[in-house]
Design goal:
By secondary structure, this protein is mainly alpha-helical. The protein is built from seven helices and eight strands. Strand 6 (166-167) and strand 7 (172-173) form a beta hairpin. Helix 2 runs antiparallel to helix 3 (71-88), helix 3 runs parallel beside helix 5 and helix 5 (129-145) runs antiparallel to helix 6 (148-165). It is globular.
């Protein structure tokens, strides 16, 4: 059976190479930077679609890719781009970060309830977890670039956290929500982090 490769795994590998480059120090990081940039170029050529957004999976030869666009995947791409920028100073990483955020806003953004929908085509329930990874990625982008646009966007997710995810009564974070960001009915709505 032909194997498929999940985009978020590719993004995590890029993150690992780029983080290793920052840990290796000047003079000994070239190999890690090169690996991160090569993997990023491969992910860009295979994963970014002409109409926008990152594929959910890469298809093995002879298989159709899963063309779903998943918010969770996009969050991991943004994290990898932040670390490539930090490790290599590659301005194209920030260009791709802005392009990715533009896609998220245009296609997956929820202008009424805030935050982002799970995926296109539609998927439910809505979850806090992809948003927490987006928060992590946006903070990493700000930390790497100093661009307050990324920090402002992180603040939007913190506001959503305070309004919807955090349950002050129990001091816990809900995970599964309906389309209006209300906790799901039943067991799923009671799950807490």
């Amino acid at each position: 059976q032909a194997a498929v490769k999940r985009l978020r795994v590719q993004a995590r590998q890029i993150f690992v190479y780029a983080k290793a480059a920052t840990m290796a120090g000047a003079g000994s990081n070239d190999c890690f930077v090169q690996q991160a940039q090569t993997a990023l170029a491969n992910m860009q050529s295979r994963g970014w679609q002409p109409e926008g957004g990152w594929l959910h999976t890469f298809a093995a030869k002879g298989c159709a890719p899963n063309t779903m666009r998943d918010t969770y995947d996009h969050a991991f791409v943004l994290l990898s781009l932040a670390w490539v920028y930090r490790a290599a100073g590659d301005d194209q990483a920030l260009v791709w970060a802005r392009r990715t955020l533009g896609y998220l806003d245009a296609v997956l953004g929820d202008p009424v309830g805030g935050g982002y929908f799970e995926a296109v085509p539609g998927q439910s329930p809505r979850r806090a977890n992809p948003h927490m990874h987006l928060l992590e990625a946006l903070l990493a982008l700000f930390d790497a670039s100093g661009d307050f646009t990324f920090l402002d966007r992180a603040g939007e997710i913190v506001n959503l956290f305070n309004r919807r995810f955090f349950d002050a009564k129990s001091g816990s974070v809900g995970e599964f929500f309906d389309p209006d960001w209300q906790p799901l009915a039943g067991k799923a709505g009671c799950l807490r982090e």
